[in-house]
Write a structure and sequence with these properties.
alpha+beta, single chain, 28% strand, 8 strands, 184 residues
């Protein structure tokens, strides 16, 4: 059976990819064809999520083993076949391609048709993909770094010891106490 997926971006209106892949191919194969179709590198951590009817994340299929609770099954892209978790037309997945800024594509299983393909293929490209890494997220402005001196723009109440004045009051740390007095 061939799965035909439609890939869309919530950030770029005119972006669309159509992917054809065999139902028994791996999630890793789907990830690789998506990355290739967008001219993205394959050196970033990515994840798929199954979504419920309200588009809330449910099951994660990760590129690498993550620490998860024992209550939830852990799925790896390299070990999980598409037809294990994707079973019906109209099913929606989320593919997170930029973990740091939580940017993703929505993927819909548009069609299931008889046959097979030689290799996962992007059969249609529309528009330009969003940048793989959100430079704005990593910019100096976002990190509140003073461009002149490279100092962080921290709250006025923050002290170099890592406690703000409110914390010091709460823990009695504003008193002038010599912590080594008992050891002299």
């Amino acid at each position: 059976m061939i799965y035909k997926f439609i890939v869309k971006s919530p950030d770029v209106n005119k972006f669309r990819r159509e992917i054809e892949i065999n139902q028994d191919d791996l999630f890793l194969d789907l990830s690789n064809v998506i990355l290739s179709s967008c001219d993205y590198t394959k050196d970033q951590i990515t994840s798929f999520f199954l979504l419920d009817e309200e588009y809330e994340r449910q099951q994660e299929i990760s590129l690498e083993e993550m620490d998860t609770s024992s209550e939830q099954d852990s799925f790896l892209m390299a070990d999980t076949h598409l037809d294990e978790l994707v079973e019906e037309e109209g099913q929606i997945l989320e593919y997170v391609f930029d973990i740091l800024s939580d940017r993703s594509f929505l993927i819909e299983l548009k069609e299931m048709k008889p046959g097979s393909v030689d290799a996962p293929t992007c059969t249609k490209k529309v528009g330009t993909a969003p940048k793989q890494i959100d430079d704005d997220f990593l910019s100096n402005d976002i990190l509140n770094i003073d461009k002149k001196g490279g100092n962080f723009d921290l709250d006025e109440d923050f002290n170099s010891d890592g406690f703000d004045d409110e914390d010091k009051d709460l823990y009695g740390m504003n008193e002038d106490i010599d912590p080594y007095a008992d050891y002299q």
